[in-house]
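note to self — DONT lose this again. spent like an hour looking for the file last time. sequence + predicted structure for the chain T wanted, 169 res
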Amino acid sequence: MELKDIATVSGKGGLFKVIKPSRTGVVLESIDEEKKRFLVNANQRISILDEISIYTTDEEGSVPLQEVLTKIKEEFGEDPGVEANSDGEEFKAFLKHILPNYDEERVYVSDIKKLVKWYSIIRTNFPEVLETPSKEKAPEPKKAEGKEEKKEEIKDDEPEKAAKPAKKG
């Protein structure tokens, strides 16, 4: 399971597993004991967690949710130290510890509450999502670049080859 397979729906609490797209929307399954499936229409607002970021005050402007969730796991493990009924200042201090440069004007306490709730749901149901993603990509072989250079050289030589008569055999 990855964050691209988990969604949130505006107006519905919790997280949902993306099952499959349909003609009129997306089939989702609740991430709880019931595992209830339902269709979300195209006119309902659905957000895939992989596409969510948290605003920051640095040049980048935001940090992907995956990085934030991974940092929470590294710092706090099983217990993030805040609960749904915690004070707003506790939530702000929690996020400040995880992400010191988060934008305090654009990230609301309600957003931080959702973050903590989502972390708890993901940690319980899909702990593999919280593992540090490998960012290493295999480097492209240099031979391919060399072949491209040869192709360009051949193009330069083509007028000379065209002047030679072709052998019939």
